[in-house]
Specification:
The structure holds two protein chains of two kinds. In chain A, the strands form two sheets. A seven-stranded mixed sheet of chain A has the order 3-4-5-6-2-1-7. The longest helix of chain A is centred in the middle third of the chain and has 29 residues. Chain A folds into three domains: about 120 residues, 2-Layer Sandwich (Gyrase A, domain 2), CATH 3.30.1360; about 140 residues, tRNA modification GTPase MnmE domain 2 (Four Helix Bundle (Hemerythrin (Met), subunit A)); about 180 residues, 3-Layer(aba) Sandwich (Rossmann fold), CATH 3.40.50.300. Chain A is about 45% helix and about 15% strand. In chain A, strand 9 and strand 10 form a beta hairpin. By secondary structure, chain A is α/β, with parallel strands linked by helices. Chain A contains 15 helices and 13 strands. Chain B is globular. Chain B is α+β, with helices and mostly antiparallel strands. The chains are: A alpha/beta, B alpha+beta. At the A-B interface, helix 3, helix 4, helix 5, helix 14 and helix 15 of A face helix 17, helix 18 and helix 21 of B.
């Protein structure tokens, strides 16, 4: 809500290949928070508005230690964008460094800004006129969607599954506590303090471990995610090896060699990418022999994983076999359909051009490219040979062009989103720590007192569990009191 | 009898009684229209008042000057404080009532209430002129004029009853339903939904073998409902617990094809927290027995309510089932269990003062809003009575916040989220549960009730005395020391009690003995101290969001950039604050921010035109 007056922080520059990154703070505590990471050459306290301080970002403890030159721009309220104290920290554009800096600022009391919150504050402060209000709303709406997209990218796969399963277990524990409160007059299983405490402690440990692991996600996230996709045996893995410059993928002539997603980092002109190879898209699951259930399952799982990789990719290289394409373009309806549905920008790659009559530079190849353009839904088309390396430079150039055409503001969301998520996890871990203490018997002066006559204060346990669920819910979507009741009704025989 | 009133209340159940009493107390000339005055304030379901969350509501009704708590205290035959062994925030007073005595006592109150007429008639139609309510048409008396109408028809709205294959129209046993009123609401453009509830068979006390059942007695020290009831001594009547068994379950399984719930005869949704016995054995097939609470319906009656085997299977199956239960082999059934389906008005069509959005002056309370429970009905009835009186007097409506009362939580849930099944309160629905306790309902609500004119001087004085006593006790706790620690610090220890500390200091002993209720509350607040502060901080944020009002009649089609789904939901629910907007299911953070900026933009534009 824009009436809030706490101090917010966000990364306001695109990351990736940028040399410098900008971390921005706004609010009454901005100066105090900045002092937690920035060591200025002269005292910060008396910095006048629109002056800057040179100094260093110093991270002396924690997983990332750093002492790097940086500068801080001070804009005192009310003569600032939001009419609050606004600070801009300019530092080297390393995603890991930026993420850690944001995390430290949050630890010092800043809150990761919601999508569009700086702009919203500027509007609330009267900085933007009425005519600009609609534009502000558009920004916020888009920022909200972008953050959602960024979050789902970050969270796809292991991390999101972990959080969802943690929230599930928290809810189950909460349901047990609420059951003991709201249905205590019925035949319901008792929740013992020992049982509740043990589960709360396990959950706390897992949330802490997850917060630690989410740090690693940051490092990957400065990179642009590129996926290779196509039917089996069109040479995706060869192309993977070419682009990544390493023989990581096993290449065989047997269609369907790649089952799992393979990942490798590489750069083009300094822009970092992480390339994913995927199992070939095939509709052949249905064609398998009926008895072959194991293979069918394997196929289905590989297929699902490929779709998941596509969902979180920011650029897709759709690979087809140039010879087969030329012979019968209609045989690639499925690829065409794929191109039409993909949200991410796409480059259509005609591979194995060396096998075309007259080679990859010849008129047959040119004709293939021209016909492919007609059906590529506007995606650029490049003819290459992964085997010989021909056309690879053109492909790299097409990748960069496509990216610059598309919006790359996602890069700024990555670390900001991760910082928000990590703060949520820390809040959850703290609540679970308190929950664990509550369930510990007989500790006199440790923590707040349970209530007179309470078994073990289920209502207090519930308060802490709700706080943990709410915090994690900010990552994956809210859980409401009705959800807990649903769990109770589904799992226990209630009702007189 | 007059033919013109300020307020007409149609329906004499728990919602209608509180609504009529509240409106009349506020000086509105009020009529309570009920088919038969002899059956006001009936307990159609179990003969008990209160319970978890519900007990808090009874105390809230009482703190606001309502009748339910006093009548329940007056007619109770057993008291139990539920969750006595748990934290005070989740305890709930409950009593077994003498059903007939309760209804009689409530009728007496209605008859003695100034400004209130009881009209024995059937409400047929809501009359509207110039888009506002102007009265009701009745079956016998003709048209009755009124400036506001409160409908509290309970399960009578197009009621349809089921017992086995037998289906008949009715609102309660031997009482006809109200079909005309349903049609009238539809004519007004209201959408109606349908819900289901059920009752168990009532047994003859003389045919029950109590020696073979488990006895459940009332509490030694009675915690009454009303803050006005200082001390209560009654002879308590015990309840008994029986258990179903595999034979009972097999019998039901064999006859499932004859159960309306499973034969397709009943289509509407019943409450999941109160399933029929046939539902329990299907959904929880692994349970080998279920509890049956045998609750006497009064002191001088042979009727016993078999709580736990609510059912609509055919009568022959009911009898066989009951007699398969240990201790009930000889039991006779005085009334067979039945299910009832009835119309309700999905409550998202109401504003937070329980007024129908499209018909100013028309208020709804109780089961018509999709709730179940006498207490829920009473809470809504009181608020509808208050707000109808304020509407007639052209005063601003009063809405209790989620941080103020369970009644506030309930009404906000109803108007913001609707009701998919009969709604009842649980303590887990209250975010600020530690603040909404049974012990402090007077402190939370009596000042407001007094300001509104619902609460009389003696009640207000009683609260002032309690508050003063609390201050004195708290001061004494801070002043008394044992070594380096104050008594207040000592009291924070889990095993320490105020009684023990009072034993160490004569002053404190005198203070706590003078007003035990004040002492109890001080003790609770000291024990909960850190948590209460945390909840208070949460409430601050909540209030800030509630204070951000959304202008009446905001045209959501004119808010640019709003997602289609958000636009549709906002337009339908018409939230009054940004806080409420955020609670609508499916609404996200950025939807609310977009709305907020739009409102800010409107505000500034108006500022320009004013200057």
């Amino acid at each position: 809500m824009i009436c809030d007056t706490d101090t917010i922080v966000a990364v306001s520059s695109p990351l990736g290949s940028a040399a410098r990154a900008i971390v921005r703070l706004s609010g009454p505590e901005a100066v105090r928070c900045a002092a937690a990471v920035f060591v200025p050459d002269r005292p910060l306290g008396d910095a006048e508005t629109y002056t800057s301080r040179n100094g260093a970002v110093a991270l002396s403890s924690g997983p990332l230690r750093a002492d790097v030159p940086a500068s801080l721009l001070v804009m005192r309220g009310p003569r600032s964008y939001t009419r609050e104290d606004v600070l801009e920290l300019h530092l080297p554009g390393s995603p890991a460094l930026v993420a850690e800096t944001v995390a430290r600022l949050c630890a010092a009391g800043a809150r990761p800004a919601s999508p569009g919150e700086f702009t919203a504050r500027a509007f609330a402060a009267g900085r933007l006129d009425l005519a600009q209000a609609e534009a502000v709303m558009a920004v916020i709406n888009a920022a909200g969607r972008r953050e959602l997209a960024a979050a789902s990218r970050l969270l796809s796969g292991e991390l999101s599954e972990c959080i969802e399963s943690l929230v599930d277990r928290l809810r189950r524990l909460l349901a047990r506590a609420e059951l003991a409160i709201d249905f205590s007059d019925q035949q319901v299983p008792v929740l013992s303090a020992a049982e509740a405490g043990a589960e709360a402690a396990r959950l706390r440990d897992e949330v802490v471990a997850l917060a630690r692991r989410s740090r690693d996600v940051t490092h990957v996230d400065g990179d642009v995610r590129v996926a290779l996709v196509g039917r089996p045996n069109v040479g995706k893995s060869s192309l993977f090896n070419r682009l990544a410059g390493a023989e990581r993928a096993i290449v065989t002539e047997v269609a369907g060699t790649t089952r799992d997603e393979l990942r490798q980092r590489f750069t083009i002109d300094g822009t970092p990418f992480v390339l994913s190879d995927t199992a070939g898209l095939t509709e052949a699951v249905a064609d398998l022999a009926p008895g072959d259930d194991a293979r069918r399952r394997l196929h289905a799982a590989a297929h699902a994983r490929t779709l998941a990789v596509l969902a979180r990719s920011e650029l897709v290289l759709a690979v087809v076999d140039a010879a087969r394409w030329t012979a019968d373009p209609s045989s690639h309806d499925d690829v065409e359909r794929l191109l039409a549905t993909l949200a991410a920008p796409t480059v259509l790659v005609l591979n194995k051009c060396d096998l075309l009559p007259l080679g990859s530079g010849g008129p047959v190849a040119d004709g293939a490219v021209a016909s492919a353009r007609e059906t590529s839904h506007g995606a650029p088309v490049v003819a290459v040979s992964a085997r010989t390396g021909e056309g690879l430079d053109a492909l790299r150039a097409a990748v960069l062009r496509t990216l610059r055409r598309g919006d790359l503001d996602r890069a700024a969301d990555g670390p900001a989103v991760v910082a928000r998520h990590r703060q949520c996890m820390e809040t959850a871990a703290e609540a679970l720590e308190r929950a664990t203490l509550l369930c510990r018997p007989g500790d006199d002066d440790a923590g707040p007192a349970p209530c007179p006559g309470a078994d073990h204060g289920e209502e207090l346990l519930a308060l802490e569990l709700r706080e943990a669920i709410d915090a994690l819910g900010l990552i994956t979507g809210r859980s409401s009191p009705e959800d807990v009741l649903n769990d109770i009704f589904a799992g226990f025989c209630i009702g007189k | 009898m007059k033919h013109s009133y300020d307020i007409i209340v149609a329906g004499g159940g728990h919602a209608g009684c509180e609504a009529a009493l509240a409106a009349a107390r506020l000086g509105a000339r009020t009529a309570l229209v009920t088919l038969s005055p002899e059956t006001v304030a009936q307990m159609s379901c179990n003969p008990a008042i209160g319970g978890l969350a519900k007990g808090q509501v009874v105390r809230e009704v009482d703190a606001l000057g309502g009748a339910m708590g006093l009548v329940a205290d007056q007619t109770a035959i057993q008291f139990r404080l539920l969750n006595r062994s748990k934290g005070p925030a989740v305890r709930g007073p409950r009593c077994q009532s003498d059903r007939d005595a309760y209804a009689r006592a409530m009728l007496t109150r209605l008859r003695e209430q100034e400004n209130l007429d009881i009209v024995a008639d059937e409400a047929m139609r809501v009359l509207v002129a110039d888009g506002r309510v102007c009265g009701i048409a009745t079956a016998v008396t003709g048209d009755l004029a009124a400036r506001a109408v409160i409908l509290t028809p309970g399960t009578f709205l197009n009621g349809r009853m089921h017992c086995g294959e037998r289906v008949w129209p009715g609102g309660r046993v031997n009482e006809p339903p109200s079909t005309a009123l349903s049609a009238s609401l539809r004519d007004l453009g209201l959408e109606l939904g349908r819900l289901k509830t059920g009752t168990p068979p009532r047994l003859d006390r003389r045919t029950i073998d109590f020696d073979r059942l488990q006895r459940q007695d009332g509490d030694g020290d009675i915690v009454p409902f009303s803050f006005l009831t200082v001390r209560l001594r009654i002879d308590q009547t015990p309840c008994f617990i029986a258990y179903t068994n595999e034979r009972v379950h097999q019998l039901l399984r064999d006859n499932l094809h004859r159960a309306p719930l499973y034969s397709g005869q009943i289509e509407s949704t019943g409450p999941r927290y109160c399933p029929s016995i046939e539902t329990k054995i299907v959904r929880f097939a692994d349970h080998d027995r279920h509890q049956v609470f045998l609750e006497p319906e009064g002191r001088d009656t042979d009727w016993v309510y078999a709580n736990g085997i609510s059912t609509s299977v055919p009568a022959d199956v009911q009898l066989a089932m009951v007699r398969a239960i240990e201790g009930l082999e000889r039991a006779e059934i005085l009334r067979f269990g039945y299910a009832i389906e009835y119309d309700f008005v999905p409550p998202t069509q109401l504003t937070s003062d329980l007024q129908v959005k499209r018909v100013p002056g028309l208020f709804l309370a109780g089961q018509i809003n999709g709730t179940s429970g006498y207490e829920e009905a009473a809470g809504q009835g009181l608020m509808a009575g208050l707000n109808a009186a304020r509407y007639v007097a052209r005063q601003e409506s009063v809405v209790l916040g989620r941080d103020q009362a369970y009644i506030g939580v309930m009404i906000d849930d109803l108007v913001t989220k609707g009701a998919e099944e009969p709604y009842r309160l649980f303590t887990s629905l209250a975010e600020y549960r530690l603040l909404l306790r049974y012990d402090n309902a007077d402190r939370r609500l009596t000042p407001l009730g007094h300001e509104m004119g619902l609460v009389d001087e003696p009640r207000r004085r009683l609260l002032n005395e309690k508050l003063a006593a609390m201050e004195r006790i708290a001061a004494a706790l801070a002043a008394c020391r044992d070594g380096s620690k104050s008594f207040a610090e000592l009291l924070r220890r889990p095993e320490m009690t105020l009684t023990e500390l009072a034993g160490r200091n004569a002053d404190l002993a005198r203070l706590t003995a003078a007003l035990p209720l004040a002492a109890e509350q001080v003790e609770i607040e000291v024990k909960y101290a850190g948590y209460l502060e945390r909840q208070a901080r949460q409430v601050e944020g909540f209030r800030r969001r509630e204070l951000r009002r959304i202008p009446d009649g905001l045209d959501y089609a004119s808010v640019p950039q709003l997602r289609h789904e958000a636009r549709e939901k906002f337009a339908r629910i018409r939230p009054t604050s940004l806080g409420q907007a955020a609670r609508i299911p499916g609404i996200g953070h950025s939807d609310v921010t977009v709305l907020e900026i739009h409102i800010e933009r409107l505000r500034r534009r108006q500022g320009h035109s004013l200057s």
